[in-house]
Specification:
The chain is of the alpha/beta class and 379 residues long. It is built from 13 helices and 19 strands.
Length: 379
């Protein structure tokens, strides 16, 4: 079975799908791995590094894709390249299927079995394949480091002959994987950290990292079966904003990481809340690419409103491309080896497996994912 790894076509993102040491492990299992030339260059890996681990290097992108049994990528494929894929081949990457109907239709027409890596279910067995979590962890770290660089203060308390410097105050909204890593990073840098999430169940995790959990009585909230926060009602959003305004006003840094899977990010920090914040404070919006949690956020840009700097941090994990690539590569490797048949030396998608049921979105010219079917029926 031939596994093809094309070079990513997104100029602003230096991450790559797979590193040489993981390619070696696939070759050892009997896979024929072929990469496009310079595929690993943006993260510091030469073609020779892959060849020394048993991979072939191709300079013909079209031939690479059309001859592959399995294609693995980081980003969703360009529409024009889907027609190059073999019928019944397997395509694995981020696909954003709830918002990319054109790509979905093209995959169906081509007869490709498409795995959406971000839809791997959040169950214990699949943790090692969970690319959303691995990349979110990097993003949470990057958010804090970026905020620390922009803030005109230092994070830790310092006692000096010139006087005592009080620690900066950091308020984190949304305590998923990114939020938890942001808490841990801000604490390591010496900040005083508060955090809020609509799911009371995360309070213990927040406290275990040394931060204060902000409690807001919103009535019935919780999380979905997949571990994501449930969408709030309009009244719950109003109550949440009212209480959070006080904590934003006291903060030097606010980091928002609240997202609802498959939907536009909820607006949490309003313009009115921003005007109450201190001049020189910083907001980092990790949900910028899905609509933003902050009024005035522009994805990939820095905006200043009333003396408050708002960073619409796009491609946050890509700011630490080396380690982000290492983690994503491991996620792909773990997925492939989980369903690898050593005797046949091929990838077998077991259609009755819980993981495959969650992430296989297209199979045999039709939508396979039940959640995606339900979504399409509601449109």
């Amino acid at each position: 079975m031939k596994i093809a790894i094309p070079r990513e076509q997104t100029p602003h993102d230096q991450r790559i799908p797979m590193i040489p040491s993981d390619v070696k492990r696939l070759v050892q299992r009997g896979a024929e791995v072929e990469i496009e030339t310079k595929m690993g260059e943006s993260s510091g890996y030469s073609d020779n590094a892959y060849e020394s681990e048993g991979a072939a290097v191709s300079r013909d992108r079209h031939r690479l894709l059309s001859g592959a049994d399995v294609v693995v990528r980081l980003h969703k494929p360009p529409i024009e390249e889907i027609t190059l894929l073999k019928e019944k081949s397997i395509h694995i990457s981020h696909l954003d299927p709830f918002r990319e109907k054109e790509i979905l239709d093209a995959l169906i027409a081509q007869g490709v079995s498409a795995v959406s890596i971000e839809m791997i279910p959040r169950i214990t067995r699949a943790q090692k394949m969970d690319a959303l979590s691995s990349q979110a962890s990097i993003a949470g770290y990057v958010a804090v480091i970026t905020a620390a660089e922009k803030l005109n203060k230092i994070f830790p308390m310092m006692m000096t002959p010139a006087g005592t410097i009080t620690p900066s105050r950091v308020f984190i909204i949304g305590v998923g994987v990114a939020g938890l890593q942001a808490i841990a990073t801000a604490k390591r840098l010496g900040a005083r950290v508060e955090a809020f999430d609509t799911r009371p169940v995360v309070e213990e995790q927040v406290q275990s990292l040394g931060a204060k959990f902000v409690k807001i009585d919103l009535g019935e909230t919780g999380e979905t079966h997949g571990g994501y926060a449930k969408a709030l009602s309009e009244e719950q959003i109003r109550l949440q904003r009212q209480e959070m305004a006080k904590h934003c006003a006291a903060a030097d840094v606010v980091i928002t990481a609240a997202q609802v899977f498959g939907k536009k990010a909820p607006l949490i920090v309003t313009g009115e809340m921003i005007t109450s914040m201190k001049n020189g404070s910083v907001i980092v919006d990790l949900a910028a690419e899905s609509g933003g949690n902050v009024e005035g956020t522009v994805a990939g840009e820095e905006v200043v409103i009333n003396g408050v700097t708002i960073l619409g941090l796009a491609n946050a994990a890509g700011h630490a491309a080396g380690h982000a690539s290492q983690m994503y590569s491991s996620n792909l490797l773990n997925f492939i080896t989980e369903f690898w048949d050593d005797d046949a030396k091929r990838l077998n998608l077991h259609l009755d497996d819980e993981i495959i049921k969650g992430c296989l979105i297209v199979h045999e010219h039709t939508i396979f994912s039940e959640s995606l079917k339900e979504f399409m029926q509601r449109r």
